[in-house]
Amino acid sequence: MTITTGTLGYPRIGQKREVKKALEGFWAGKLEADALIHTIESVETANWQRQLEAGIDRIAVGDMTFYDHVLDWCVRLGLIPNRFQSLTGLKQYFAMGRGVDGIPALEMTKWFDTNYHYLVPEISSDCQPQANFDDFLAKVRRSQLILGKRSNPVILSPVTLLELSRKEGSLQENLEKLLPLYGDLLTQLKEYGIEEVQFHEPILVTKETSELKEAILTTYHELANIGLPINLVTYFEDLGANYSWVINLPVQAISLDFTRGNNLDLLKIGGFPEDKRLGVGIIDARNVWKIRPQSVISTLHQIQEITTNISIQPSASLQFVPLDAQKEVNLAEPLRNVLSFAQQKLREVKMLSEADNQSFYDEIDAQWQIFKEFSPYSENVAHKLTNLKTNDFDRTLSYLERLEKQLPLPMLPTTTIGSFPQTSEVRQLRVKYKRGELTQQQYEDAIDHHIAECIKLQEDIGLDVLVHGEFERTDMVEYFGQQLSGFAFTEHGWVQSYGSRYVRPPIIFGDIARPEPMTIREFEVAQSLTTKPVKGMLTGPVTILNWSFPRTDISRQDQAFQIALALREEVADLEKAGAKVIQVDEPAFREGLPLKQERWSNYLAWAVDAFRLSTAIANPATQIHTHMCYSEFGDIIKDIERLDADVISIENSRSNNRTLEEVTEAGYAHQIGNGVYDIHSPVVPSTEQMAQQLQEGISNLPLKQIWVNPDCGLKTRRWEEVIPALKNMVEATKLIREKTESL
Ligand code: GLN
Ligand code: ZN
Hints:
The chain is α/β, with parallel strands linked by helices and 743 residues long. It has 27 helices and 22 strands. The protein folds into 2 domains: 4-320 and 331-374, TIM Barrel, CATH 3.20.20.210; 391-675 and 702-718, TIM Barrel (Alpha-Beta Barrel). The protein starts with a strand and ends with a helix. The structure holds glutamine and zinc ion. Glutamine (GLN) binds at residues 417-419, 470, 476, 537, 585, 587, 627, 629, 712-713, 715.
């Protein structure tokens, strides 16, 4: 039997970031809707053409979007919350995505364990779904002109959509409303001459409940009646206990991820039905490296022993990787040649399906060989890693013993999370320096000027623990990655975070080491200007790792430990430079949690250890802070405690003290920075508002455990918002202090 090929989605940004630019132009009122639509359709067409040229048999169609594919399906199905009902067309669409005066957007949250954020559907009990598939059908029509029979529409399954939504009523109830609409869509597509569609059903890798099983059975049995073959697509993990019944659903094909989880074992144990095609997601759509021929061939052979009716595919949509590695001409060739972005992955998919691909494998093997010589290997780091001792992870004294030795502070100490507004002036400075228009001296003088202003301002406002303001940093991971060896940075390696927001994650390509101190100069400048304590400010090992593309030849744990060892040196140097307080930010700590809860403990064990390795070197008298700006702590609070930070600052304003309550209920005994100011909003919170929240929040917790701070860094805010907000925050704190002192 011949092996076919397929894709599950392609990057949406365009070769020259056309889509991002068009969207932003449209929102700014500088571009007409027609022009926006034209741009998006041309990028979509170009994407199809690339996949066609690569010789892919079933090409994903319909994954392209103006903002978010989940939002697209909400609109197509008429799942429009009441507050958007008065709007129509693109106005309504973008209002749902980004909000519009007075109407808040849908909530945004992470798409499974990726760094992509989707909009959470809201379905109330009175919602009457109503289909309008015109845009989708038009896309399919257009694709057929170019792709013919290869057009393979991507549909977000109603079960996954409902499971990801905030809904009233049961899954089954809501499903019954939606299924007829999906039925109509399939009927239409069948009339168009479409031969097969993809149903994306990633929810199947996250849970194994009977409710989910029932909903899936209902869906696929009912849709089977239409007679349009379906490829049931899953990704990001294995099917677990769902495997045994999912493979017997009435579908044409089942697509599994063979780059994560244990689908290979499930396949070997459970077998695979002869009448179905297996979509083999063997090209990693979540990382940027070329295949390792030996391991891919071995996996493929094992699969083919079970079934020969297969299609080679990326493990998921290629939207999670950048477009084209060969455009990175500034990366050294040995590195560039082992990188595989979307364009290279198409070729890998195709080559794996060919009978005669030995020369392709040989070429890649040779490239990996050259890379091996090139990639930085550090004897020193390897030696340190293998010789780690238990006490490298432990501070010398317990929290309570340390507490006595640490700096004296007023009750309810006030501080900020690190960054202050990144004005265009500050950004310009960095750009000019990079272009060589400023000498190092000129650049540093200008940065120091901002630091001085920032210190003065914090003193005037009356904050207790100051920060230098992070004016020298573009991004909290990039800044450290650029100073550590083992990290590479792309020029065009954009990956969608949400809507028009794209990031360029660093690539870890070798052993990580710290050639020189990274933050000491700015710390010293700041501390020299004030008698108040200035916090040293670092990004934690887990966050640096989780926001980078990791290498695949050593474990993530080892990479986290390598970063931790580098940060450990920085912590020691900050201490030597006089820092009494050091903050190690871990905002990406929680998002690294595996999709399956049974794998949490393994991740948490090494992630906590990595943090401890980076901070345990601190003297007992040095106060270690960490920062995590989200609200779901309940299920990992014991692990947070094990970080053994003296202070953790958390989000608490949007959750109305709920986060604080959760942490308190769990008996958290260290200090907590109570994020009372929501920095994601331009609104300046009033003194009364913050005082009230503080008052309510502290009723459950000993006062000496509480700090007062904004819920994240201030870099996206404007000075006009930040100054009054911080003044009010300090004022609110004073009110509470006076109140409690007079008791
Ligand atoms: N120290 C960083 C800042 O203030 C923390 C950012 C974050 O948590 N995402 O910007
Ligand atoms: Zn934060």
